[in-house]
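Collaborator request, handled under Task 6.
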Amino acid sequence: SLISSPHPLIAALFPLVLTQQLGGSTSQLGWFLGLIALQEIPLTLMIGAAVRSFNLWAIIIFGGLSHIGFLISLGLTTSLWSIYLLAILYSMGNAVLLSQQMSYAQDLMPDRPGLGSSLMSIVSLFSRGVSALIFAGLSLFYGFTGALIAGMAICLLGCISLALLDRAGGVKRVTA
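Structure tokens returned to the collaborator:
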């Protein structure tokens, strides 16, 4: 949940940063989102192939770190053209989190089919709640950059927690 919480936060903040802070237009937002969608399909296929060689938790952490890189870069960017360079970070994070989280949740409880899949609704609810609290609470006092930094910190906490918990005996390797 913590790793995926930047996803709805970025969805709320990115259009505001693009149009209000960087002076972009809604058509530029459409081009950026189209570029993201175009990149997600091949990246999802590459990530699916990478699952055979790497631990699933490591791939999910990679997706979280991609979102962290995007959040940091978005908070620091001052030019509109650099937004398009950040598209690959956002696409990698989305491709991992949208395609691999359910596999991870299902593999947590292999003896109870369907329970891991049903947990995805709880993960989604919790991550959206964390995102809403960050957006509503911090952007009011610290602006968009403060909310982006808080989202980065929450995602980093999730990455560290997943690495520590899974190294201690969680899901090992999935060979799909």
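The cover message to the collaborator said: "The chain has a mean pLDDT of 85. DSSP finds six helices and no strands in the chain. Please let us know whether this matches your experimental observations."
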